[in-house]
Amino acid sequence: MFTSAFILLTLLAPATQPSATMKAIRYHEHGPASVLKCEDVAKPVPGDGEMLVRVFAAGVNPVDWKLRAGRGPIGNAGTTPGFDVSGAVESVGQGVSKFKAGDEIFAMVDLRRGGCYAEYAIVKESEAARKPAKISHTDAASVPLVALTAWQALFDAGKLEQGQTVLIHGGAGGVGSMAVQLAKWKGAHVIATASKENQDFLKQLGADETIDYRNQKFEEVAKSVDVVLDTVGGETQSRSWSALKKGGILVSIVGPPRPQANADARSAGILVHVDANELQQIATLLDEGKIKPVVTQVLPLSDATKAHEQSETKHTRGKIVLRVIEPAQ
What we know:
The chain is built from ten helices and 15 strands. It is of the alpha/beta class.
């Protein structure tokens, strides 16, 4: 009797639910790309003002591997990298009003947090914009960080206006390829540098003049420009002062510019920051076809190590994207 009753109660009792887990890329020490590991971790829970996003794709940026290697003031060991995400809202925390479960979003998460190389990520409402409807999640994930960097460098810091001339170093890279397109959309005269192999690509993006930096001295071609966008640093930055006109500005995204060699010019160093309003404007430009994503390699989440190794060559055209979950059709 006791045995039968025990079996019956056991069958009727609610099943114990295992803790929800997900796949995520993590590193537990700074070092080479090989420190990246795909692990089972607890699925995060959104707090106030936060959303749990099912990640369909995550963008790969140079800042990801620089922080992994310990080359920055942020990026503690024991974290999941990744700042670009495109996916669907799974659930929302208290205070979220702009988005609801099922909404498709793309976002750049704060550089102090990361977490996008995973099946699910926490995204604050203030970091997200509605995903452009006319592009895929893979393409959308390639955009936020590089487009916001280019926007903030050209327009917020550089104050680039229609009819002005801009020199963009590294025009074929992630930030550079977006900067060329945004500057052209603004109505500027665009001069961009890249290797010989990327000259036609620069023209396709909208560059008015292209410079093969290995075989041409850019300062002999680009003269009296209003804005220089420096994505390279070092000698390239030092030589860029002579290309500026009186009152022009050198904007660096690779650290504060060194003391200027042109007393008539100005300088600014920027570190990209989250801005959902600017990201929504970028989304509109993408849907209108005014700018386009540049994705040259798509890898599965489990190949994050390979993605970092490729990014570290510094010869990637546009962006590398990790495909995390295939969205249902």
